[in-house]
Write a structure and sequence with these properties.
Largest sheet: 2 strands, antiparallel
Strand content: under 5%
Distance between the termini: 127 Å
Order of helices and strands: HHHHHEEHHHHHHEEH
Number of helices: 12
Helix content: 40-55%
Radius of gyration: 58 Å
């Protein structure tokens, strides 16, 4: 059977869509549509293939580019046997096919931006052209990607530049992740300046049979210490009374009245003040404004006073220039005297620290106790060891000795307190109790 008109296809192997054959081409439209241009397309496709492989068409190249005259030949061509080459595999041949023609640059993005066309993104949302491709891999590869595979963690040694970078990173990050170290003040340890023994020899007046002079001296020392403690207690009591009086005044403060000011009561009649003044009203003094002449006169006097003050200050300054050397000598002398006094005071403190240790100094919350002198009255003294009474506390003496030599910090005795429950008062009603 003969094929129908619709089944006859044009024999075109160039890859273009097949068209139905039509024997007659009546009319301009049918002529343009159904004209057979297969041969022309094959020729153009061949020229494109030549351009992809060689970069240009063969007819545009010279003979020196197309042909090479070999006058010598290859004598060892038969000695080479064909060997296995991975490049001859099919997938390598396909991958090796690259066009010699440069790729065409697409101006689509620029033209769409100029035309202000709406770009649709995910879920049919309109995307801002300025934010297009945000977050995509449009940036150049990072330094880590470029240098990947070239660093050996076991063989490579750190360079000076890397050490400098790591030092800069430490300087920037360490203050953020670590707490700053507390700066400890540079204070000399007082233990090195103390020269008292662990067990101090007692006073001669503390003996069971002391000399009279030594015993009187020890009694005088104990009396002085007792008086000093009594004065301190009296001073603390005065401060306490003053604070209590201040609290009392604070409780009696009247709103709108300064502290300590007494306000008279308003129980007196209003006419009492007028009766004291004789009943005559006090005339009010009218306020008078200054004239322009008075203002000019006061301004002139003010200018004259300022000029006289400036002249006197300048005169004093000029007179002080003559005594500048004497003033400088006096200042230097006062500074040297003050420095000598400071050094003398420092030497006295060092000598006291060397002899008596930390006794009387404050360390932390508490003061180091000086220790109470162990003394007996004349009636309690015994002439023999048989009637000697034990005085003092050996443990307390050792404990104070450690504090005086700056071996331990001062402590105060903490006595246990008995827990006393608070009394809870409850109001009961007789008419609510039915028992």
């Amino acid at each position: 059977m003969a094929k129908t008109l619709t089944e006859k296809l044009s024999r075109n192997n160039t890859g273009s869509p097949a068209q139905y054959a039509q024997p007659s081409r009546k009319g301009k439209k049918a002529w343009r549509k159904n004209v057979d241009i297969g041969e022309v397309e094959e020729g153009l496709e061949g020229m494109r293939a030549e351009e992809r492989e060689t970069g240009s068409t063969l007819q545009s190249k010279t003979n020196s580019e197309l042909y090479h005259i070999d006058v010598k030949g290859d004598d060892g061509v038969r000695k080479h046997l064909p060997k296995f080459d991975r490049t001859q595999l099919s997938y390598n041949k396909v991958l090796a096919e690259r066009s010699a023609v440069t790729a065409v640059f697409s101006h689509k993005t620029r033209l769409l931006r100029i035309g202000k066309w709406k770009r649709l993104g995910p879920l049919n949302s309109i995307v801002d052209p300025t934010e297009l491709n945000q977050g995509s891999a449009i940036l150049e590869p990072s330094h880590a990607v470029k240098e990947s595979g070239t660093y050996d963690v076991w063989m490579a040694a750190a360079s000076d530049d890397e050490d400098a970078v790591s030092a800069e990173k430490k300087d920037f990050l360490l203050p953020l992740v670590e707490k700053p170290a507390v700066k400890v003040p540079q204070v000399d340890n007082p233990r090195a300046a103390i020269a008292i023994p662990a067990v101090v020899a007692p006073h001669a007046g503390a003996s069971y049979n002391p000399p009279a002079a030594a015993h009187q001296q020890l009694l005088r020392l104990a009396n002085d210490k007792a008086e000093k403690e009594e004065k301190m207690l009296n001073r603390y009591a005065a401060v306490k009374d003053k604070m209590a009086a201040a609290r009392k005044v604070q409780a009696e403060v009247t709103l709108g009245v300064p502290t300590g000011m007494v306000v008279d009561s308003r129980d007196e009649p209003e006419g009492a003040e007028e009766e004291e003044n004789g009943g005559a009203p006090v005339p009010s003094k009218p306020s008078s404004r200054k004239t322009k002449q008075q203002r000019r006169k006061e301004q002139k006097q003010l200018v004259e006073r300022r000029a006289l003050a400036e002249r006197a200050a300048k005169k004093r300054f000029l007179s002080s220039l003559n005594t500048l050397k004497a003033v400088r000598k006096a200042v230097d002398k006062s500074l040297s005297t003050r420095e000598q006094a400071r050094l003398q005071k420092r030497l006295v403190l060092q000598e006291k620290l060397r002899k008596s240790g930390m006794a009387g100094h404050r360390l932390g919350k508490h003061f180091v106790q000086e220790g109470e002198p162990v003394v007996q009255l004349g009636d309690d003294l015994t002439e023999s060891l048989r009637g000697l009474k034990v005085e003092g506390n050996l443990f307390k003496d050792r404990f104070l000795s450690l504090q005086h030599r700056a071996l331990i910090e001062p402590r105060v005795p903490v006595l246990p307190k008995k827990h006393r429950p608070k009394t809870k008062s409850v109001e009961k009603f007789a008419w609510k109790n039915f028992d």
